[in-house]
């Protein structure tokens, strides 16, 4: 769906909300405490006279609003961050759940949805919840079939083989207007928004005029350090040396998206392992994406000299696009890396830098 949008549309300044169909009011009240409930109660008291069904929906939205405010204020992290670091008891993110057949079993009052593990965690993750809190038929249907769902969840128990969370809020991601009304229908893009293409950025805009090569093969001769040096040149920065505890391979405060200045954090992968990037390229338990997500950046980049597989894309999105703190993300695969170097006449320089480093290494 992102490819259907123009560069200007992809850059639209939009917020992200959860359209709730499951709200556990008692848990929300416990988590946000008396001070938070004062604001909730005040907003509820200001509701006009409504039919009971409409009033319940409005109340669910109010509870969800303040849970998201709390998550933003406390810096509550996405699910995979909690799992990778084994710290924290509350998460907020959009996750893929496997089909839950018992959701329509009239004899069962509770249900269990299983997280669609991307394959990098050696344990099972389940969500246990009472079906009476499900207020929407659409959510019920999609839980039955398996779907992407935005969740604020609380840790219930954990062993080496099973981690159990209890949902506090569940629903679907929903884009909301911020500074100005966008020139496209935002309701169709909630699951795909916030991904940028490399040519969307002002400093990389010439890439749009360069066709994608048939193969990333020429990137096998370009070292990671050479690519970083060229990237820094485009952004007017100096390429710092790597160090083992870094959050990212490169950081810049000089990137612009349609005139808006952004901070950016990059993971860069050279040709040492020249094959399509899977999650195993990104460290044990995806720790490179975990560290990248901790960088104080507006946009998160993953660059590789070869192709980038869909599990990497989905994992980066899960870390970047939180309902409480949505951030932009961009994947630059080997073909787009070539387009970037070719667009600015930097391929020969990258090649020379790579050869020069090889000679120094041999000595």
Protein model, in words:
The protein is α/β, with parallel strands linked by helices and about 375 residues long. Strand 5 (about 145-160) and strand 6 form a beta hairpin. It starts with 6 loop residues before the first helix and ends with a helix. The protein is built from ten helices and twelve strands. It has two domains: about 1-175, OB fold (Dihydrolipoamide Acetyltransferase, E2P) (Beta Barrel); about 195-360, Trna Endonuclease, Chain: A, domain 1 (3-Layer(aba) Sandwich). The strands form three sheets. Strands 1, 2, 3, 4, 5 and 6 form a six-stranded mixed β-sheet that branches. The chain has a four-stranded mixed β-sheet with strand order 7-8-9-12, with helices on both faces. About 40% of the residues are buried.
Number of strands: 12
Shape: globular
Which structural class fits the helix and strand makeup? alpha/beta
Q: Indicate the radius of gyration in whole angstroms.
A: 22 Å
Mean pLDDT: 92
Tell me what the CATH architecture of the largest domain is.
Beta Barrel
**How many distinct folded domains?**
2
Largest sheet: 6 strands, mixed
Amount of helix: 25-40%
Give unreliable regions as ranges: none
CATH topological fold name of the largest domain = OB fold (Dihydrolipoamide Acetyltransferase, E2P)
What keywords describe this structure?
363 residues, alpha/beta, OB fold (Dihydrolipoamide Acetyltransferase, E2P), 2 domains, 6-stranded mixed beta sheet, 4-stranded mixed beta sheet, 12 strands, 25% strand, globular
Would you summarize the structure shown here?
This protein folds into two domains: 2-177, OB fold (Dihydrolipoamide Acetyltransferase, E2P), CATH 2.40.50; 195-362, 3-Layer(aba) Sandwich (Trna Endonuclease, Chain: A, domain 1), CATH 3.40.1350.
């Amino acid at each position: 769906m992102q490819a259907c949008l123009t560069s200007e549309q992809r850059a639209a300044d939009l917020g992200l909300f959860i359209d709730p169909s499951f709200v556990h009011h008692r848990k929300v009240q416990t988590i946000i405490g008396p001070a938070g409930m004062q604001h909730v109660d005040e907003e509820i008291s200001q509701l006009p006279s409504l039919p009971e069904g409409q009033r319940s929906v409005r109340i669910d939205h109010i509870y969800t609003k303040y849970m998201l405010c709390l998550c933003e204020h406390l810096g509550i992290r996405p699910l995979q961050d909690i799992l990778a670091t084994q710290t924290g008891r509350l998460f907020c993110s959009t996750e893929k759940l496997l089909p839950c057949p018992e959701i329509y079993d009239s004899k069962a009052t509770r249900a269990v949805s299983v997280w669609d593990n991307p394959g990098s965690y050696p344990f099972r993750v389940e969500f246990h919840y009472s079906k009476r809190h499900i207020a929407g038929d659409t959510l019920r249907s999609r839980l039955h079939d398996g779907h992407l769902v935005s969740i604020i969840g609380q840790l219930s128990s954990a062993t080496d083989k099973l981690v159990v969370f209890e949902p506090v809020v569940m629903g679907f991601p929903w884009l909301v207007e911020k500074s100005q009304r966008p020139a496209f229908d935002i309701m169709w893009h909630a699951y795909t928004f916030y991904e940028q293409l490399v040519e969307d950025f002002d400093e990389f805009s010439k890439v749009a005029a360069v066709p994608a090569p048939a193969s990333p093969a020429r990137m096998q001769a370009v070292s990671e350090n050479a690519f970083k040096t060229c990237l820094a040149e485009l952004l007017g920065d100096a390429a710092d040396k790597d160090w083992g505890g870094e959050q990212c391979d490169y950081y810049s405060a000089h990137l612009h998206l349609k005139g808006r200045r952004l901070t950016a954090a990059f993971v860069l992968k050279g040709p040492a392992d020249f094959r399509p990037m899977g999650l195993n390229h990104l460290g044990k338990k995806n720790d490179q994406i975990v560290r990248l997500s901790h960088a104080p950046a507006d946009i998160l980049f993953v660059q590789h000299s070869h192709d980038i597989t869909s599990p990497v894309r989905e994992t980066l999105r899960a870390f970047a696009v939180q309902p409480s703190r949505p951030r932009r993300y961009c994947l630059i695969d080997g073909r787009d890396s070539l387009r970037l170097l070719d667009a600015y006449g930097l391929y020969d320089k990258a090649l020379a830098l790579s050869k020069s480093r090889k000679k120094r290494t041999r000595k």
